[in-house]
Design goal:
Layout lengths: L45 H11 L12 E10 L10 H4 L4 E10 L14 E9 L2 E8 L12 H8 L15 H9 L4 H8 L13 E2 L4 E4 L5 E10 L8 H10 L3 H11 L5 E10 L5 E2 L2 E2 L15 E10 L4 H6 L12 E2 L4 H17 L81 H9 L2 H16 L4 H14 L1 H11 L32 E5 L6 H12 L4 E6 L4 E4 L2 E4 L2 E2 L10 E4 L9 H12 L4 E4 L3 H5 L9 E4 L4 H12 L16
Parallel strand pairs: 13-14, 13-18, 14-17, 18-19, 19-20
Antiparallel strand pairs: 1-2, 1-11, 2-3, 3-4, 5-7, 6-7, 6-12, 7-8, 8-11, 9-10, 15-16
Helix pairs in contact: 3-4, 4-12, 5-10, 11-13, 12-13
Bound molecules: CIS-heme D hydroxychlorin gamma-spirolactone 17R, 18S.
CIS-heme D hydroxychlorin gamma-spirolactone 17R, 18S binds next to strand 2, strand 3, strand 4 and helix 9.
Function: Decomposes hydrogen peroxide into water and oxygen; serves to protect cells from the toxic effects of hydrogen peroxide.
GO molecular function: catalase activity; heme binding; metal ion binding
Family: Belongs to the catalase family. HPII subfamily.
Amino acid sequence: MTATNVPEPTGDQRDRFLTTAQGVRLPDTDHSLKAGERGPSLLEDFHLREKITHFDHERIPERVVHARGAAAHGVFTAYGSAASVTRAHFLAEKGRETPVFVRFSTVLGSRGSADTVRDTRGFAVKFYTEQGNFDLVGNNIPVFFIQDGIKFPDVIHAGKPQPDLEIPQAQSAHDTFWDFVSLHTEATHHVMWAMSDRGIPRSYRTMEGFGVHAFRLVDAEGGTALVKFHWKPVAGVHSLVWEEAQIAAGVDPDFHRRDLAEAIEAGAFPEWELGIQVMLDDGTDSCEGIDLLDPTKIVPEELVPVQPIGRLRLDRNPTSYFAETEQVAFHTGNLVPGIEVTNDPLMQARLFSYLDTQLTRLGGPNFPQLPINRPHCPVNDMLRDGMHQTVVHTGIAPYRPNSLDGGAPVLAGAQDGGYVQTPRRIEGNAVRANPASFEDHFSQPAMFYRSLTPIERAHLVEAFTFELGKCCVQAVKERELAVLAQVDAELCAQVADGLGLPAPTGQPVRAVPISPALSQVVTEPGPVAGRRIGVVADAAADLSGITKLRKAVQKLGAEVLVIAPAGGMLKHGRSEQVVERTLLTARSIEFDAVLVAGGTVPTRDIKLVLLLQEAFRHLKPIGTWGDGEILLEAGIDLDAPGVLVAGAVDRAFTDALVTALGLHRVWDRAELVTSSAV
Ligand code: HDE
């Protein structure tokens, strides 16, 4: 065989003979070669040695942060509206479609940790553009803990499990984290977001994403603007309640990963709009007094609106977790012409870190050749050799200038699509110091707190009280209370109350603007695509009512799952329903609403009672059709907000359900349930 007709490895093992890595067909993979049936294994058994050796080396180091993640393929479609600020083709050309791979993650936990822990979420997007790969490596929180990348090892060492016993896993509720953030008060803004509902998203599909730093965009004429990137989920911004997050961490640690994959599988493709806040690049790197180089600050949307520039749709699950989700390597330095960096000291450190960390994690410098990392445009570099080189380069002159390869490769100027940096004046003394504008650590945290609705504030207070309540060192709690006193006296007093400690007083009240965009509670119902309604039924239930309900909500992309005492099929008259969950396998966290089908025989089965009471406590719409007896048996107040009882499944019933689902939670019910649950 010549090199040209060697078959490409397909990775598909179906309908083919099992072989060794050398392609030798194998008759047996269950028994090692032994000296007699009862004898020792023979060293000459090449199959045994290869199989065990490869297995011994199957694991690679997990990411030093963001180890736990889930990803999907999709497409980004540009609106063309960004043409006025950038020459990057994938953003500027109306209707241009660019393939993407998006990885969501938690930050602190190990690769096997639970999805629903309280943490920041990563939102990393690789755009395979025709001008090369662009990575927008963002988070679901628009600010960061630190202003200078040199502090990154510190904040991560403090947040990771404590080094003596390696506990707690995947959470910030411990002394070292609060020790650090109470001493390093520039972290306060990020901490406020992490303790808010943003720290426990309902799903990846309902998270906002932020580029965090200001980027410099360059248009076709060389004009520049500073921008902040925002991803806005079409499904709305929604969160879990704390008890749900805790239950999910045990009952279904893959909660977010499963949700993403199942939504895509069901055709409820998650979508986001990409938007930019555009600010003047006038040499001051600031906007209305906000330092754009300080990654602990936002620019309120009311001040600079987010302008939509394109749409992201995730429509394909990975086929190999390892090859794709684990081996994908994001890098903030993967930029394309028209997108440049700024002097933000956090961004500057990241430009070094990502490429560096992949060398250890992916075992050498050739990881850009891995299929998931490969650009979709031609690559013609002069990088050679190294571990795991897969390209068979031709030519003999991987250097410039050369004459032996005819002077190739040639260089691209701006007119050929080359990445030509915009000249920018840089001067100053070499100093280890921050500008004075980085000093205000409390005004924006105060703005964040005061922009939340009362229920969101209550959640924030509870989160602080929980996390500090898990700390053992009194001085750490007291110091964090002193920090909160600087943010807001009411917040501080409530947390202090919960901890049983005195609240520091005497801090001036800060006059801060309110930014309604910071609240995620909606008053108008949003879309319900991808939402799940659990319907409890038994053989006596009105199964045709379930069919009607399913038809009504399926049109909107929502799903009905039947829960019954046992698996199999339910049959009643001429109606049938497949049982998707039993009372043993169902848990309330999976559903956005829980109903009981009319006619279902009332029971006090504790699993049913728990299902209904949890859904009630977590402020989900619940309901039934028929006399409602079964809800009463479970102790549900039929007059409580968001409890839907109707004679039959009719238009009014399904409309009320869809409206309640679209509002995400029945917030009016909050005061009826104990605060510790929600
Ligand atoms: Fe990262 N970060 N980061 N980070 N980061 C990594 O790169 C780092 C920061 C973010 O799904 C690492 O490949 C430094 C901000 C995401 O694969 C590492 C600093 C933001 C992901 C690294 C930051 C992020 C990472 C670990 C401070 C939001 C997961 C593994 C200067 C804007 C990407 C890896 C994925 C991953 C370094 C701060 C987002 C070590 C030094 C701010 C979403 O290179």
